[in-house]
Write a structure and sequence with these properties.
The complex is a heterodimer. Chain A is of the alpha+beta class. Chain A is about 35% helix and about 25% strand. Chain B is an alpha+beta fold. Chain B is about 45% helix and about 20% strand. Chain B is built from 3 helices and 6 strands; from the N terminus they run H-H-H-E-E-E-E-E-E. In chain B, strands 1-4-5 form a 3-stranded antiparallel sheet. A 3-stranded mixed sheet of chain B has the order 2-6-3, with no helix packed on it. The longest helix of chain B has about 45 residues. Classes of the chains: A alpha+beta, B alpha+beta. At the A-B interface, helix 1, helix 7, strand 16, strand 23 and strand 26 of A face helix 1, helix 2, strand 2 and strand 6 of B.
Chain lengths: ~650, ~190
């Protein structure tokens, strides 16, 4: 079963997305861009270009470079909107025999769906390249105000492109889905404020929960089909030209390269001012005249920008107020406002939205991509992907065991999706330790005593060996029902013990919340405690290693050296009993220095005897022979009852 | 395998792993009832098998895609940064293209600028960012952006007459198109 892609077929730009792993994601096109211009061109060589490449050759081929076809699709030739467009575009708009608005280009007449189909074909192809599978079905979005004829024409475009259009959904609806508003319980009224590159649309929709399903109803729509981000850019360009003329007397409007650079700089500056209070527009060598090259270097503040575009922003107020009125609701009755379209990122725009609707809008989904993402979600629902996926649980708190020093070592991090299984190898803390206690804990604190104990068990009959040598594999396995199985296995003897812990021995939602908060509050303290424990453990290892070195050298140790080391060990042991990490570190250093000399000698000696074991010197002089992922567990002898 | 020394800390602690799922009630059933139960169980097993396979397949697709994403991230990760640096190269080139006096001071300045530009270019090239200078070539909208058309008989129509601004490729993908003037047939 192939997957269903979601397509935002826009007037200026289109975007395609798909549901992956339960989350919608935008598919990049073959040029690596996340949106594709909705432009189709027929070149003199009879090539058909779609997207950026079509845009780039527009000047060389104005009659056959078709754009904004969405303004024509599904309309009659005599429609006011079409007649208006007739005089605005360089290509020919004609009436078909049946009265529909058609386009004449490349020596023939074609219906708008045929042209839009080219864009869809490119999106389809790029999606197939990305996914590595054939795509035959799609969900396509249309403006909420599209009538039947326009919707059908959009469906036709899909069919021509080789896509079965499983559903046509409204753009505001798709946006609402991208924001997850259809997953809440009960009814909801949502306003969608869509300020894109070339058009402004505002819609009020109602999401009703009927028999567990969510239904969308468009209560009202309004907008301005010729108001968008590009108009904002124009204001900045005009201001730049004006300022430059004042300084140099040159009008940059007549210099195509300068104008292009200004356009890019203006858009960049506008975007920067959404997050800074001012920005530099710096264009060296922007133009030249008889007296030489000229540079443009101007500062634009957010306040100045806002004054330049004030009237444009205010122009969105009227349509919003009309839409609210037409919906029969009061602004206060609208539960959520969501922002769509790149231009909605501007702080001034967000301000006016908050003013008009009386509450702050949601902007947590990428405004340029929300519609496509919503279409992808719808595609996923229709394809059965969303239903099939069991809503998997996560472990709300981390799970682990108690290790040397009373510390909790986590094996499963909180918010891990279950079922899951993980294991880690631990070892003994003392020489000749023949049993270990596995104390299972749940929580986020560093110290075991601050976490919840879920249970404990022992694994005995470990063959006597030096500390750190036995390999005890501890496995945590949570099944789909949330039941935790903890087992410990001695790799040498293959002996295994385990424990089964059910959810009922865990915590309530409130307790979980409290524990997570507690952990955050105590994070600093816990960290210090952990460091102290680590220092102690290191000290312990070093003492063991030093004692070992001394005994191995036997007579090779002079009496003075031996007593020096013994003194250092004594001082260190005392320090370990205190809570002073600095002191412990100090004494550890001292012992390390003292025993290092000894260790060097031991290995020089061995080296002279023909055993070049150079690397081990570093090891035994310092920490203790530990493999990277073996952690010392605080394992107690079975007979003791420490805790 | 139970062990004498296990400390039974809470009632839940057990010494052996249980096999979950065999909670069937062992009541007496008729052969028909058993047949039905078996058929249901087999169907459920088949459904679960399908789901497992599908999940496995999805996982593998996801892995494959993640690898590709990572590869792309490495290759194109510097794309934004490289694109921001291009105007620096542009400005240096524009500066050098200006006619200047021949005084030694100016010459020294020019030399410095040339060397700086060279430095920048070689840094870019180290990361597979190369310039596109298509003067005289056939106009190619995949790599060039037409700024204007100019009627001329000095060049073939639809070839690049003049390059306003160089384009750039990153790892063979277009980073920025070259801004060009396209030759137009004088007759048209």
């Amino acid at each position: 079963m192939s997957r269903i892609i979601g397509i935002d077929l826009g007037t200026t730009n289109s975007c395609v997305a798909i549901l992956e792993g339960g989350k919608p994601r935008v598919i990049e096109n073959s040029e690596g861009a996340r949106t594709t211009p909705s432009i189709v061109a027929f070149t003199p060589d009879n090539e058909v270009l779609v997207g950026q490449s079509a845009k780039r050759q527009a000047i060389t081929n104005p009659k056959n470079t078709l754009y904004a076809v969405k303004r024509l699709i599904g309309r009659r030739f005599k429609d006011a909107e079409v007649q208006k467009d007739l005089h605005l575009v360089p290509f020919q708009i004609v009436g078909a025999d049946n009265g529909d608005a058609w386009i004449e280009a490349n020596g023939k007449k074609m219906a708008p769906p045929e042209v839009s189909a080219r864009v869809l074909m490119k999106l389809k192809k790029d999606a197939e390249a990305f996914l590595g599978e054939e795509i035959t079905e799609a969900v396509i979005t249309v403006p909420a105000y599209f009538n039947d004829s326009q919707r059908q024409a959009t469906k036709d475009a899909g069919r021509i492109a080789g896509l079965e259009v499983k559903r046509i959904i409204n753009e505001p609806t798709a946006a609402a889905m991208a924001f997850g508003l259809d997953r809440k319980q009960g009814d909801m009224k949502v306003a969608v404020y869509d300020l894109g590159g070339g058009t402004f649309d505002v819609s009020i929709i109602e999401i009703a929960e009927v028999d567990g399903e969510h239904q969308f109803e468009v209560l009202s729509t309004n907008g301005d089909t010729h108001l968008g981000g590009e108009d904002f850019d124009l204001r900045i360009i005009d201001w730049l030209c004006e300022e430059f003329k004042k300084e140099s007397g040159i009008d940059l409007h007549s210099d195509p390269l300068a104008l292009q650079r200004l356009k890019e700089a203006a858009e960049k500056a506008k975007i920067e001012l959404s997050s800074s209070q001012q920005t530099d527009i710096n264009l060296p060598y922007v133009t030249a005249d008889a007296s030489g090259p000229k540079h443009l270097n101007l500062k634009l503040t957010r306040a100045k920008l806002e004054s330049l575009v004030e009237d444009l922003v205010f122009r969105t107020r009227g349509p919003c107020e009309t839409a609210i009125k037409d919906s029969g609701l009061k602004a206060s009755e609208i539960d959520e406002i969501i922002l769509v379209g790149g231009q909605s990122r501007m702080p001034k725009v967000q301000e006016i939205v908050t003013e008009i609707f009386g509450k702050e809008p949601r902007k947590d989904v990428n405004a340029d991509e929300a519609v496509a993402l919503g279409a992808a979600i719808q595609g996923g629902v229709l394809g059965g992907q969303v239903k099939d996926v069991l809503l998997l649980d996560v472990t709300p708190l981390s799970l682990g065991i108690e290790t040397l020093g009373g510390v909790m070592t986590k094996l499963i991090e909180k918010n891990t999706t279950i079922p899951t299984k993980t294991g880690q190898v631990f070892s003994t803390a003392d020489d000749n330790q023949t049993a270990v206690t596995i104390h299972v804990l749940q929580g986020e604190r560093e110290m075991s005593k601050d976490n919840k104990s879920l249970g404990r068990f022992d694994l005995a009959d470990i063959p006597p060996s030096p500390r750190g040598m036995p390999q005890i594999e501890v496995t945590f396995d949570i099944d789909a029902n949330g039941i935790l199985h903890v087992s410990a296995k001695d790799k040498a003897t293959q002996k295994e013990q385990s424990i089964r812990i059910t959810a009922s021995s865990g915590l309530s939602d409130d307790e979980i919340k409290r524990m997570v908060q507690d952990a955050e509050l105590h994070a600093e303290e816990d960290k210090k405690l952990h460091e102290l424990v680590q220092a102690r453990n290191q000290a312990d290892s070093l003492i063991h290693a030093s004692q070992k070195t001394v005994s191995e050298l036997g007579d090779g140790v002079e009496a003075a050296e031996k007593s020096q080391i013994e003194d250092a060990i004594k001082a260190l042991k005392e320090a370990m009993n205190s809570d002073d990490k600095t002191l412990i570190d100090q004494k550890t250093e001292q012992l390390s220095e003292a025993s290092q000399k000894l260790a060097e000698r031991l290995y020089a000696q061995k080296g002279a005897e023909g055993m070049g074991a150079n690397e081990s010197a570093a090891e035994s002089g310092h920490q203790g022979t530990q493999a990277d992922d073996i952690v010392d567990a605080e394992f107690e002898e079975v007979k003791d009852d420490k805790k | 395998m139970s062990h004498d020394d296990i400390l039974p800390e809470d009632g839940e602690a057990q010494a052996q792993t249980e096999t979950p799922g065999l909670e069937s009630t062992l009541e007496i059933r008729t052969p028909e009832e058993w047949a039905e139960a078996l058929a249901k169980a087999e169907q459920k097993a088949q459904e679960n098998w399908d789901k497992a396979l599908r999940t496995q397949a999805d996982l593998e697709n996801l892995k494959r895609r993640s690898e590709k994403d990572l590869q792309n991230a490495h290759r194109f990760g510097i794309e934004k940064f490289a694109r921001e640096l291009l105007p620096v190269a542009d400005s240096l080139e524009l500066g050098l293209s200006v006619e200047t006096a021949n005084s030694p001071d100016i010459q020294k300045l020019r030399e410095g600028m040339e060397l700086t530009l060279k430095q920048l270019r070689s840094s870019l090239e180290k990361f597979n960012v190369v310039a596109v200078d298509p003067e005289g070539e056939k106009f190619n909208p995949e790599r060039h952006q037409a700024m204007a058309m100019q009627p001329t008989d000095e060049a073939e129509p639809h070839t690049v007459l003049k390059v306003y601004q160089k384009g750039y490729l990153i790892s063979d993908r277009l980073l920025r198109p070259a801004m060009v003037v396209v030759a137009q047939d004088i007759g048209s």
